[in-house]
Amino acid sequence: MEKVSYVSVSPAKTATLARTLAQEVLKTKPGKQALVFGLVGELGAGKTTFIRAFIHALGIKRKIMSPTFLLWRRLVLPKGKRFKNVFHLDVYRLQKPGELYKFGLKEALANPENIIIVEWADRARRVLPQGTIWLRFKHGQKENERNLTLNRR
Ligand SMILES: Nc1ncnc2c1ncn2[C@@H]1O[C@H](COP(=O)(O)OP(=O)(O)O)[C@@H](O)[C@H]1O
Ligand SMILES: [Mg+2]
User: Under 8 Å CB-to-CB from 97, ≥6 apart: which residues?
Assistant: First the structure.
């Protein structure tokens, strides 16, 4: 996948981008392993805003917060979808990437019915697969401006 860049001018626009991506994801054919998204960007860059809209667009109605204190949260998709589970990770407090194996990262990655979406993913880069789709969030010049880039490296 080539690199794609977007400029978001509001939280609502970021949510729209996330919903568009979620619709694409629901159309993808099953792969050999989980679909992994790595989100990178400083505090307030919009990672959780994006994930909240993304997860809701997949059909999950629960309240979505940064699981900073939980680190690892599993959400179950409604029946009949291409995917069964979404794992929402916030690895901000992670000491060592290898700790994620204790939560069952290996098993989660091996299942093509899983979506794994990681906030602060640069801190867990070592344990994320080659095919990870990277989403980078940066503050723009204006207050509500955010620059988003999506690519596979
Ligand atoms: N274009 C934008 N996209 C996303 N969030 C924005 C945008 N403009 C302003 N914001 C605000 O920035 C904050 C982003 O917070 P959050 O999504 O929790 O970021 P992170 O998870 O990266 O720390 C929210 O308060 C949101 O309302
Ligand atoms: Mg967050």
Answer: 91, 123, 124, 125, 126, 127
